[in-house]
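Tutorial handout. Part one gives the primary structure; part two gives the three-dimensional structure as tokens.
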Amino acid sequence: MPTTPTPPGLFDHRMAVFGTDEEFLGAAVPFLTEGLRAPGEPAPVAITTPARLALLGDAFGDTVTRVTHTDWYTGSAPNAIAQGAGYLARNAGAGGRVHLLMEPDWAGRAGSSARESAEWIRYESLANLLFAPLATTALCVYDTRIARPEVIERARRAHPGTAAYEDPHRLTAALDAVPLPPAPVDARALGLDGVAGWVGDRGLGASDAELFAGAVREAADALGLGDDAEARVWGGAPACVAELTAPGRLGDPLAGFVPPAGGPGPERGQGLWFARQVCAYVDVRDAAGAPVTTIRLQYGR
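Part two.
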């Protein structure tokens, strides 16, 4: 059954778990009907698999906007944040009012590895902070036939109204407590101006190399590093990696997740937002017992 709604006027972030098509409809139909009846709202939106969209088409016809999840979730979890923010800005009612039924691609990228799944749970958790000012109502659906039990258990920690819910700051801190694999012994230190050429020599095309080098520079700026900063680099296309370390702490779990005022971008000068939009992974770690932050960027998967 779906979790209970939060009070009106707040971001309402619900979760439903199902194991059959009938159970899916039992959660989805009341939710979408609620959206159709909500005053001042556009048509509710369902983002899920083609098979489940067909079920909803039989139930609602064209009254519900239907989007395949592979059309919505076209890249990383930060890309999905940009997609959602852009959609709300263009299409939601006053104050962000719209009902969204959402299902990440657990049979595809979102469920492809433990690391990838953790990034999507981070997105689910941070949504409670990112969209807090909006009156959007979201129902995240989880199919036990596809999503692994550990994914569903973590997802409960990201959704208010479940007994397992955790504050997003605590949940993201737990995700960030997992240490990164050590850099390989052949990692090389390079100035920022040398990153594009180095990854180009390792198989990235010219445009991708420039995007990655731009992301590294934006991360360096976020850490307060100057043009003389160095990055450690390793790997090969598409999974080229760069790592930056600097004194101090970012201290903000939303760093790089908040859409810039000028639009979802990405554009140079947007700091970690740009880096997260163009890279497959951007990991931020604070050193234990020392005011030092490391940012590791991986361009492709």
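Part three, for discussion. The beta strands are 12-18, 45-48, 65-68, 99-102, 137-143, 188-191, 230-234, 241-247, 281-286, 292-298. Confidence is low (pLDDT under 50) at residues 5-9.
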